[in-house]
Design goal:
The protein has helices at 4-15, 25-28, 45-58, 118-121, 129-140, and strands at 29-36, 41-43, 59-72, 75-86, 93-103, 109-115. The protein has 142 residues and is α+β, with helices and mostly antiparallel strands. Strands 2-1-6-5-4-3 form a 6-stranded mixed β-sheet. Strand 5 (93-103) and strand 6 form a beta hairpin. The protein starts with a helix and ends with a helix. This is Nuclear transport factor 2 family protein.
Length: 142
């Protein structure tokens, strides 16, 4: 079972993530770690790091805040809010989601799987695509 302290350390790592702290990924993630979200399925710590390098390339501002968490065995479940300002934009996008974090016995992260609604929280903010998706949502809604 993973300790509360290990989960707190992981939360602090992500809440304070900067381009400079990406060098710590090898300390935090297992060599064969997996990161998956609606846009990526990266395997290996170098590939996981590249996902976050690209994120920093694509945003001017960001903040990540864990609102709540739970632990079961070697897994942590994080409820979070991620706020970004895409490059060249002024409006802040807020993304709410959940993550499943799987820890190895040595405390390193084996998997980080993000779950969030990319359609309503990202795609609908993109011109033209957003118009189509909002129309579809209205047609499907009860």
């Amino acid at each position: 079972m993973i300790s509360e302290a290990a989960v707190a350390d992981y939360i602090a790592f992500f809440e304070n993530l900067t381009p400079g702290s990406l060098s710590r990924f090898e300390e935090v993630f297992a060599p064969d770690a997996r990161f998956r979200d609606p846009f990526n399925d990266a395997r290996g710590v170098a590939a996981v790091r590249r996902v976050f390098e690209k994120m920093f390339d694509d945003v001017d501002e960001h903040s990540f805040k864990v609102l709540d968490h739970g632990i079961s065995g070697n897994r942590a479940y994080l409820n979070w809010e991620f706020r970004i300002t895409p490059k060249g934009k002024t409006k802040v996008w807020t993304i709410e989601g959940m993550s499943v974090i799987v820890f190895r016995d040595d405390g390193k992260v084996e998997a980080h799987i993000d779950h969030y609604d990319a359609a309503s929280q990202i795609y609908e903010k993109i011109p033209l695509v957003g118009t189509v998706l909002r129309g579809l949502r209205r047609r499907i809604a009860a």
